[in-house]
TrEMBL record:
Keywords: Pyridoxal phosphate. Pyridoxal 5'-phosphate (PLP)-binding protein, which is involved in PLP homeostasis. The keyword Methyltransferase does not apply. The keyword rRNA-binding does not apply. It comes from Corynebacterium marambiense. Belongs to the pyridoxal phosphate-binding protein YggS/PROSC family. Residues 34-230 form the Alanine racemase N-terminal domain. This is Pyridoxal phosphate homeostasis protein. The lineage of its organism: Bacteria, Bacillati, Actinomycetota, Actinomycetes, Mycobacteriales. It comes from the Bacteria.
Amino acid sequence: MTRSEDLARRLTSVRAAIHSAARDSGRDPEEIRLLPVTKFHPASDIGILRDLGIDAVGENRVQDAVEKATLFPDVAVHLIGQIQTNKANAACRVAAAVHSLDSCRLAEALDRGTSLAIDRGQRSDEPLPVLIQFSFDGDPNRGGVPESGIDELLDTVSGCSNLLLSGVMCVPPVGSEPAQVFAAAADLRDRLVSAEKRQMELSAGMSRDLREAVAAGSTIVRVGTAILGPRG
């Protein structure tokens, strides 16, 4: 089996799982976007996925996002991993969205980086969509902002003219109950909808907990292993 055939088979299976989970939850499958996570896989896989109808992928590391976005400018790259502030400028040159905003310092760095990229003609003059990464357990060693820090971060983002608040992202801590984590993140997303009076994304769910995420209201599921196979 060729790599193209393998990815096509896996992609079909994941799409079917999303449709099944949506139907079981009484949701329209069209409300849910699939974001294949290509981290640690060769850039050539993005070309194959593009030919299979994928127009956006997720990357963890800024340097990999830059490489892959340069090779495949017609595929949007979403940054889903932690971003060091000293890499914010590079991130803003290529990111279609950032799912892992978790500090005021990073928000300010992304705001400056987006402004710089716009001034240099490296991206359009549209604000950079950002999602707040919600930390369910508040563990400082993991990415995400705890409930106690949400309001301060939202205040900072509101003052960043080059950022567009677009929703909430979460990753269930090891040993946690995914449904409980997704429900808490969905509540935060709903609060943002009420405050901003517009739609917000919920980026939640991976290969192992896709069904629970869809049931909780996820609008973006980030699937790596089930589509790309084991990491290289």
